[in-house]
User: Fold this.
Amino acid sequence: MQNLDLLRYPIGPMPSSQSYTPEQLAANLSSITECPRKLTELVQTWSDSRLDTPYRPDGWTVRQVVHHVADSHMNAYIRTRLALTEDNPRISPYEEQEWAKLDDSTLPVAPSLAILTNLHLRWVRCLQHLTSDQLGRTYLHPGNQQTYTVADVLALYAWHGEHHYQHIARLAQRNGWEG
Assistant:
């Protein structure tokens, strides 16, 4: 991977649909469980100067990334619930680049960290005891015409949380902001 690719995809590309072992499902659920705590511990005491630093050239600021994770995971939670309660619903995509430009993306990160903490509490509870049939329930994403299972969503958002956590953690490492 080239340097810019490594900055964009610090843990590699997004996973593609597959079948998942019980161990992989448990690891994905654990990652989703830990995401809010890890992100909060990393950035909660950062100054505005740090929060307004892009994680890579032409990338979002740390502040925008934190707000994006909350936005994205709210959408994923709703999509999960739709898949569990409707027959292959067509979900509503959103323009994440445009959402990142909205005025609320300039707020302190505390509200988005609180959203993530409470959202993940509900989301994890919803995901914890799903049967294999429920994990196989689907929704259709009209943007790419791909069908996702709930198990795929679990894998995708385990990756997504860690992907953005690593954007920020590696920025901190490069800039000597650790500790």
Q: What stands out?
A: The mean pLDDT is 95. The first strand starts at residue 138 and ends at 141. Strands lie at 138-141, 146-149.
